[in-house]
Every structure is written in C-alpha cells, then in structure tokens.
C-alpha cells in the first residue's frame, strides 16, 4: 500500500481563499473562463496532487517560504477528497454556464463558495469532515 502524501496543513486554507475570490468573481460576472479555470485547479488537486495544483505551487513558492516555524503536516487524503467535492460542484456550475442555466450555475457556485469560505476564514473544511465521517462509518466495529 502506498504511503499517504503529507502536505503543509496551511496550504489548503490558502487555496480556499483564492478559490473563494475566483468563484465570487465568477458568480457576479458569469465569466465562463473563471469557472473553467477553477474546474482545472480542482481537477489537478483532486486527481493528481494538491502541491502540484496552481494554488499549491503558488503557496509553496511564494507564501510558505515567508512563514516562520516548521510546517504542520497532515495527510492529503481529507483535503483531496474536499477538492473532489469542489470539482463536482464546479462541474455542475460549468454545465450551468455552458447551457446558460443560470440558476444551476448560481446554486452550485454559491455552495462551493460557502465551503471554500468556511475553510479560508475559519479553517473548517466541510469536505474533510465528510471524508473523516465516511472513514469512521466504513471502519468495522469490534
């Protein structure tokens, strides 16, 4: 079994802040390119590697070197699951944008903004909590 990838626990919060800003701007401008961009960012983070996503690279190259002390590490599994959930919501928003179904676009984008804002402002990751609950429910009781 492969060892889990560990990441700086502060990185997902930074990424959530950028995600919040991008999606709020996309919501109010209806710029398809912003939704496509965020979909690509979520895809890289969820399916490949969080540190290799555009926001992960920005965090590692610009922000992390300026932080003091050792980086608190965490397993990437819960945040990657959260990125997968974000990918799903933004995929729905993309479909809404492409079909000009603005209610679908608005609801899916707003839900993703809510989750990203909770993470960036309060360090509360909804997707991570769902992942951990799923692990707990899937773990056999003895």
Concise summary:
The chain is mostly helical. It has helices spanning 11-29, 32-47, 54-63, 77-98, 102-122, 126-138, and strands at residues 6-8, 73-75.
- What coarse outline follows from CA principal-axis ratios? globular
Secondary structure class reads mainly alpha
Q: Rounded to an integer, what's the Rg over CA atoms?
A: 16 Å
Question: What fraction of residues sit in β-strands?
Answer: under 5%
Which sequence of strands runs across the widest sheet? 1-2
- Spans with pLDDT under 50 lasting ≥5 residues? none
Helix content: over 70%
Number of domains: 1
Average pLDDT metric: 95
Biggest β-sheet description: 2 strands, antiparallel
Through-space gap between termini: 23 Å
Total strands:
2
With helices defined by DSSP (H or I, 4 residues minimum), what is the helix count? Answer: 6
H-E string: EHHHEHHH
């Amino acid at each position: 079994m492969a060892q889990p990838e560990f990441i700086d626990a502060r990185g997902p919060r930074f990424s959530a802040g950028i995600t919040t800003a991008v999606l709020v701007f996309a919501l109010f401008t209806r710029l398809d390119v912003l939704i496509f961009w965020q979909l690509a960012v979520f895809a890289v983070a969820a399916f490949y590697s969080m540190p290799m996503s555009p926001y992960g690279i920005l965090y590692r190259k610009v922000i992390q070197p300026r932080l003091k002390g050792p980086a608190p590490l965490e397993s990437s599994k819960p945040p990657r699951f959260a990125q997968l959930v974000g990918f799903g919501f933004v995929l729905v928003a993309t479909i809404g944008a492409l079909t000009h179904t603005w209610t679908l676009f608005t609801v899916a984008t707003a839900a993703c903004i809510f989750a990203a804002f909770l993470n960036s402002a309060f360090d509360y990751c909804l997707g991570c909590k769902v992942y951990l609950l799923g692990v707990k429910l899937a773990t056999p009781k003895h």
